[in-house]
Design brief:
Layout lengths: L1 E5 L3 H12 L3 E5 L3 H8 L10 H10 L3 E4 L2 H7 L2 E4 L15 H10 L8 E4 L7 H12 L7 E4 L9 H6 L4 E5 L4 H10 L1 H5 L4 E5 H32 L3 H9 L20 H14 L3 H28 L8 E5 L14 H11 L3 E5 L4 H7 L4 E2 L3 H5 L4 E4 L4 H5 L2 H5 L6 E4 L6 H6 L3 E4 L4
Parallel strand pairs: 1-2, 1-4, 2-3, 4-5, 5-6, 7-8, 9-10, 9-12, 10-11, 12-13, 13-14
Antiparallel strand pairs: 6-7
């Protein structure tokens, strides 16, 4: 089938490559010409496991290419996926839908009759009704454009795997629109055939499923981090507490890792966007706990700064601090709302000299936070430091030998804000070791 993907960032570039892998002819479209250029060379403009290989394979085979032209995308395909960014509005929790609306406005008059638009971006409930209005106003008179929504659940660092083998697919369609469902099933035939369940719903249910999923994931993380606060007050150990809960299969271990909390381009903004929209609709009471979920998450960052100050005898001014990690989580160079960079920046603002290392996100971090110092390897980052903060749980940090690192740091103090280092091993190597929520 001939498919376009409009918006080729983290979601869209992965989706385009995955659609080509399924055997479709794919044209990706983005207004960012640098991205288009890199993608046409078969290079992902960000770090994502397995994506470069897929891009190279399918751009070489000419089953996948990229353009900055709406007209070309509209002309090329009968099915158009939307992967456009829906960031947070400045100064408000609300979503900024202007990019999405602009794209639909530009595409509408150029679309072929009976084209299907399938939104994948994360949007507040009610968005598709607005987009339908835009289509009605701007599509060619007499043409029949189908609109469906299939929210995306991929995780960065596992994006290719999650796209090709999703644990479920959601499809929201307009009342009685069996055509869209049939076309969608044809696009996803291979994935559905391999057993991924498809849930077909109304458009508003599909919009809500995505918001609710991210609100739930955020709640789970903040729950365990709220327990960490309680542990800190009582001398209990949140890692053991998480173990004691996780064996209960109704609770589980996933999304229950205590620490510095959630960041990234999704959970923080989707939690706020979902809450904001629910409040607009009058469901304030139903979602008031989600305000706490956000507050607990922000407090973890403040607590880490506070603990650093405590370990340095009450002040960080003029002290050299090493930070391991800049990405919002391991396996990516994405620094959007990164808890690690937020803590590094806060320490710098109150007078510390901060040196950051990250295996993949250094370039992005340098550009976003030019006032911090950066090191190309974890050992040079700690050289001469009075404290080490472990803020992103890249596996290579857990594998580092604490005895070796100790030889380079001025004072062997460490805060493990991701509950990922081996406490006993670090203590045995002579480190003063603190972890959030642990004695
Ligand atoms: N990143 C993820 O893991 C993920 C997972 C699920 C859902 N989502 C959702 O997917 C959407 C995209 O997220 P992302 O992380 O890929 O963001 P991103 O910023 O990496 O990509 C968005 C892309 O849209 C492009 N764009 C903006 N306006 C455009 C326009 N008018 N026409 C064409 N292209 C345009 C941008 O240039 C950019 O390349 C968001 O709604 C996000 O919440 C993201
Ligand atoms: O037990 C945990 C799990 C995660 N995190 C943190 O939570 C954040 C988000 O992690 P994760 O969910 O793995 O990353 P994302 O790639 O942002 O994926 C989320 O956001 C996407 C965009 O909406 C969704 O598609 C995914 O389903 C959803 O998991 C990161 O900062 C993690 O460090 C924790 O602190 N503890």
């Amino acid at each position: 089938m001939k498919i376009s993907v409009i918006g080729t960032g983290y979601l869209g570039a992965t989706h385009a490559a995955a659609m080509a892998e399924l055997g479709h002819q794919v044209l990706g479209m983005d207004t960012d010409t640098h991205k288009v250029e890199a993608l046409n060379k078969g290079q992902a403009p960000f770090v994502e496991r397995g994506l470069d290989d897929l891009l190279a394979k399918h751009t070489t085979a000419r089953t996948l290419r990229f353009t900055a032209s709406y007209a070309e995308a509209a002309e090329f395909a009968d099915v158009h996926f939307l992967g456009i960014g829906t960031p947070q509005q400045a100064g408000s929790g609300a979503y900024d839908l202007t990019h999405l609306q602009a794209a639909v406005r530009r595409l509408a008059p150029q679309l072929r009759d009976h084209a299907l638009i399938v939104g994948k971006s994360t949007v507040p409930v009610g968005t598709t009704a607005q987009l339908r209005q835009i289509l009605t106003e701007h599509a060619r008179p007499g043409s029949n454009i189908h609109l469906a929504w299939s929210p995306e659940f991929l995780r960065e660092s596992l994006a290719v795997e999650d796209t090709l083998r999703p644990d479920r697919i959601v499809l929201g369609i307009e009342n009685g629109d069996t055509t869209s469902e049939a076309v969608f099933r044809a696009v996803y035939a291979e994935i559905l055939g391999a057993g991924s369940p498809l849930i077909v719903t109304s458009l508003s249910t599909a919009e809500l499923i995505k918001g609710a999923a991210n609100a739930f994931l955020a709640t789970k993380i903040s729950f365990i981090n709220a327990m960490a606060e309680l542990c800190e007050l009582t001398g209990a150990d949140v890692q053991q507490l998480a173990l004691g809960l996780g064996y209960d299969q109704r609770i589980g271990f996933q999304g229950m890792r205590p620490g510095l909390g959630f960041g990234g381009g999704c959970l923080p903004k989707d939690l706020l966007g979902f809450t904001h929209r629910a409040e607009e609709l009058g469901a304030d009471q139903a979602v008031s706990f989600l305000r706490q979920v956000d507050a607990i998450n922000r407090r973890r960052r403040e607590r880490t700064v506070e603990l650093a100050r405590e370990m340095l005898g009450g002040t960080v001014v003029g002290k050299r601090i090493a930070v391991w990690g800049a990405a919002f989580k391991p396996g990516t160079d994405d620094i959007r709302d990164s808890p690690a960079l937020a803590v590094a920046g806060a320490l710098h603002r109150i007078g510390a000299e901060v040196t950051v290392h990250d295996p993949a996100a250094l370039e992005n971090a340098r550009r976003a936070c030019p006032s911090l110092d950066y090191a190309d390897d974890p050992v040079s980052a700690v050289t001469g430091a009075a404290l080490l903060l472990h803020l992103t749980d890249w596996p290579q940090y857990a594998e580092t030998d604490p005895a070796e690192v100790r030889q380079h740091i001025a004072a062997p103090r460490v805060i493990d804000a991701r509950s990922a280092l081996d406490t006993d091993r670090w203590r045995r190597a002579g480190w003063t070791f603190r972890a959030l929520g642990c004695p």
